[in-house]
Write a structure and sequence with these properties.
TIM Barrel; globular; eight-stranded parallel β-sheet; 14% strand; alpha/beta; 318 residues; 2 domains
């Protein structure tokens, strides 16, 4: 099956399905390789990776498929400039950059032919990224896991607003999507593809501790909280860390007290070590829509099949 949109044309993929660049979960080759091989866009998450590990994973994905894949780079990470040096030398087909401005990287990657997508959470930054010359946008709403929009505007609203503000750019919608019905909804809003995070977090190839996956699998749609106001907020499952942060925020604790608690807990604790009590168990609200851990290639195929079935159920004008 193929579903053609401006985003699939830009990226050279068969289906408008993008696997989110999730630290640890896709900081290895298995998940992005499976998604790209199935016709979507797999994404290597460079955020927590050392340079030798990143180079090795890029080799593994390049040798494992001839289909396009992307690298996600959070620009705030320590050593981001060194990572950019490595990536420019590797000439990735697609770069997805987040947590920073596009002018920092754009000319270097455009010079080597890389397609540059920039992550935004609102219209203002979308317009600025478009003016800077990016090739497309990943638009993240409040439902997303990890680092969603701090203003808590929903994906339904922000994607529609950005698509109207920068109609010349392909938009990839992110936050709250778990199935083919969500894919159909996003395309109806004006997006050209959907980025799925939590759905691929719950895949057989995700490079995370089983305890992390089981916690997310048990979660309902109301099982996450957005915490870390003024600190780069994260959406994570409710646990002891989240409860402590909520209490500090509700009691009006000063910034440094909140920062100390916020930085004491890490995603690594949950995703790599399996500490789902004290770690940041990052996940989106769509966790409550997912009831199975499946191979990533099967997830891609199901999303496409569900999309087609959704279109068939929609009422037609008389």
């Amino acid at each position: 099956m193929k579903i053609r949109t401006p985003a699939t044309d830009l990226l050279g993929i068969d289906l408008p399905i993008v696997q989110a660049g999730m630290s640890w979960a896709s900081s290895a080759s298995a998940l992005p390789l499976a998604v790209s091989s199935a016709g979507g866009l797999g994404v290597v998450a460079a955020g927590p990776m050392r340079l030798p590990d990143l180079s090795r994973v890029l080799d593994e994905v390049e040798h494992g498929t001839d289909r396009p894949f992307a690298v996600n780079l959070p620009l705030y990470r320590r050593g981001a400039d060194e990572v950019m040096d490595l990536l420019v030398a590797r000439r990735p087909r697609v770069l997805i950059a987040s947590q920073g401005g596009p002018r920092r990287y754009l000319s270097r990657f455009r010079d080597v032919g890389t397609i540059c997508l920039h992550v935004v959470t609102g219209v203002e930054h979308a317009v600025k990224a478009a003016e800077a010359g990016v090739d497309g946008l990943v638009v993240v709403g409040a439902e997303a896991g990890g680092h969603p929009a701090p203003n808590q505007v929903s994906t339904l609203v922000v994607v529609r607003a950005v698509a109207a503000a920068v109609p010349q750019l392909p938009v990839i919608a992110s936050g709250g999507f778990a199935d083919g019905a969500g894919l159909a909804a996003a395309l109806a809003l004006g997006a050209g593809a959907v980025q799925f995070g939590t759905r691929f977090l719950l895949s057989a190839e995700a490079n995370v501790h089983r305890a992390y996956q089981e916690s997310v699998l048990r979660a309902g749609i109301d099982g996450t909280r957005l915490v870390g106001r003024d600190l780069g907020p994260v959406r994570a499952l409710a646990n002891e860390f989240v409860e402590r942060m909520v209490k500090l925020e509700e009691n009006g604790a000063d910034l440094e007290a909140r920062r100390a608690e916020f930085t004491r807990s890490t995603l690594r604790m949950a995703a790599h070590e399996g500490d789902v009590v004290h770690g940041k168990v990052e996940a989106g609200q769509s966790a409550g829509l997912i009831d199975s851990i499946l191979p990533a290639g099967q997830i891609v195929r199901l999303l496409a099949e569900e999309y087609a079935a959704t279109l068939g159920r929609l009422p037609q004008p008389e």
